[in-house]
Design brief:
The protein is α/β, with parallel strands linked by helices. It folds into 2 domains: 125 residues, D-Maltodextrin-Binding Protein, domain 2, CATH 3.40.190.10; 89 residues, D-Maltodextrin-Binding Protein, domain 2 (3-Layer(aba) Sandwich), CATH 3.40.190.10. It is 40% helix and 25% strand. It has 9 helices and 14 strands. Helix 5 links the parallel strand 10 and strand 11. The radius of gyration is 23 Å and the shape is globular.
Length: 252
């Protein structure tokens, strides 16, 4: 009888054990945010080999504001969204533009920046290229694969050359293999205005030809984490730390 009584008690305990197990899983000690460190000043590897940038600093600040441990890991762009869907990490903070297509599988935080896509050309090309509309049909334009700049170029009669990161496109542009390169306006300013190696060789042709909101993305339906991110962001926006961080990284 004791054996059956023990079995009966064990069966009664199973639901409570499962509940306790589920609760433990929900209370994470660390949340991992993926970033592709090829987009200064948002995220990049500095001269000492350290992961740094606006979002790299912003993410742990959001966590600190709400008492959570938010960390950033460097993940290649071409796998970043698949990894989010597969649960390899909890969120993506990598200069991600909010698009209708992405909203089908990703929930986005409060926007952290507004920007647009611009065309970069060499100083020699600037005289004949005042904007992306001045490019001749079939012009070769470099862009980082899978970015909103990549998607935006599909509306133009150019030959799209896709690269793993925008730096490679810039180098090809300087080597005379491209007629232009497209990236976010903020990234372009870093290459053109702040990088002393490129300052007298490259210019931005005209104004941005798109308008985009940048935000942090989480798995569709992960409202618990999304609420944490938005709560932390609001605290930083209210106390001035968010604007101070943007000013530190030259983000307008």
């Amino acid at each position: 009888m004791k054996k059956y009584a023990i079995i009966a008690v064990a069966l009664l305990l199973i639901p409570f054990m499962a509940f306790a197990s589920g609760s433990a899983e929900e209370e994470k000690s660390e949340y991992v945010f993926a970033t592709d460190a090829t987009w200064p000043p948002f995220e990049y590897i500095d001269e000492n080999g350290n992961l740094t940038g606006f979002e790299v600093e912003l993410v742990p600040m959001i966590g600190d504001a709400i008492g959570e441990n938010f960390v950033v890991e460097n993940i290649p762009w071409d796998t970043i969204f698949a990894g989010l869907r597969n649960g390899q990490y909890d969120a993506v903070a990598s200069g991600v533009t909010i698009t209708e297509e992405r909203k089908a599988t990703i929930d986005f935080s409060t926007p952290i920046n507004n920007q647009g896509q611009v065309l970069i050309v060499t100083t020699e090309q600037a005289a004949s290229t005042g904007s992306i509309d001045d490019l001749p049909e079939g012009a070769k334009v470099g862009v980082q694969i899978g970015t909103t700049g990549d998607f935006a170029l599909e509306a133009y009669p150019v030959e799209i050359r896709r690269y793993d990161d925008i730096g490679l496109a810039i180098e090809d542009l300087l080597n005379g293999n491209l007629d232009g390169a497209v990236c976010d306006s903020l990234i372009a300013s870093d290459f053109v205005l702040k990088n002393e190696n490129y300052a007298d060789k490259l210019v931005v042709a005209g104004e941005p030809f798109t308008s985009e909101e940048i935000a942090i993305g989480v798995q569709k339906g992960n409202t618990a984490l999304l609420d944490k991110i938005n709560e932390g962001l609001q605290i930083l926006m209210d106390n001035g730390e968010f604007d101070a961080l943007k000013a530190k990284w030259g983000i307008i």
